[in-house]
Specification:
Length: about 425
Amino acid sequence: MGLIVQKYGGTSVADPDRIKAVADNVAITRRRGDDVIVVVSAMGKATDNLISLANSISTTQSGREMDMLLTTGERQTAALVTMALLERGIEAISFTGSQVGIITDTAHGKAKIVEVKGDRVRDSLSDGKVAVIAGFQGVSTAKEITTMGRGASDLTASALAQAMNADACEIYTDVTGVFTADPRIVPRARKLQKVHFDEMLEMAGAGSKVLAMRSVEFARNHDVPLHVRSAFTWEQGTWVSNEEPSVEDPIISGVVTDMTEAKVTVVGVPDRPGVSAALFEPLADANVNVDMIVQNTSTDGTTDISFTMPMADLAQSETIVQTIADEIGATKVTHDDDIAKVSLVGAGMKSSPGIAAKMFRVLADEGVNIQMISTSTIRVSVILPGPDMERAARALHTAFGLDSGSDYSAPLPERK
Ligand code: ADP
Ligand code: ASP
Ligand code: MG
């Protein structure tokens, strides 16, 4: 008998039938004799809908009120899954993140976990109950309700698995595992049997949403192996762990695509010391996650600086940057929200020179214009025009020998 954490994502609990299917799976696990902690996301697009609702009411939402609003999505699912379990004769009880003592810092919308108490989870397990926990949320050291960033139910799951010393942490989603690319964009993507935490962290950081980055970071730091699998087919998925790659593993393990960033360019910036600091310090103070930065060489004593950041932070960034641009005497500020980031990730890159060059050649042959480039030891990323993303990703996937013999075959549920 073991303890299993099972996390179900939004598509997996999108409607009453899906919730019943999830309850059936939990019931099977429980009847097999295991203790089960269930972590749930909001149903389907519930979080997006709550955000739109807030946007239709206010343009300057307070973080506190947003978190009060958004946490209701997960809370709803937790109650409904619990009802479905009780209906099946399985003892169960739902909890909010706050009730189980997921203590975070005070950064609304992107709070970090400082401690997981878990007393009520322990108590309910020892009473023979399944604990069903609303993901994505906690309570801050200032006793306010917080959320931990988009996709953070994954983080709730890995944090609880670690705190409760679980034997397995299963992340149920709408695809059958982690693939060499998003199968919705590259149908020839291949399922990976296993992925090392370091590679998964780079993939998540490059924008692959199959696992939220902070959950991978947490799982790696605390050595919690994750099993990513489908709640639609229940087949074996992908293990994400510390297991070292073998020598036969391919140099490149995946192509990652990301359409969630936007680019801001400040034109005609005076080329003198301190200008970049003046520009990026206020963005950092406003908690904007700047990703790539490119500064052109100066020609007539001025230069252009471009940077990317999450689309959600675009309006805020533009306002901040416009103020600074006026102060420093830049010519103008422009933005582009139709860009995409395509990245190659692979631990083998460390010892294989020429990967970036080959990537640029493939893109050139496709007629794709690269706007920005950044690299790490195991990743090369480029920014390109949004409409070119799919073509670029597929061409790279083929060129680096990642294609499987056939298209992705499991059902790809529509995102509600
Ligand atoms: P959930 O709601 O279950 O958390 P997400 O939408 O957050 O699900 O993540 C699952 C989605 O991630 C898949 O439907 C797929 O489109 C996308 N995805 C992106 N990259 C990959 C990848 N490398 N392997 C598998 N899925 C990926
Ligand atoms: N519901 C939240 C989101 O959509 C958290 C999650 O699903 O993990 O981002
Ligand atoms: Mg997710």
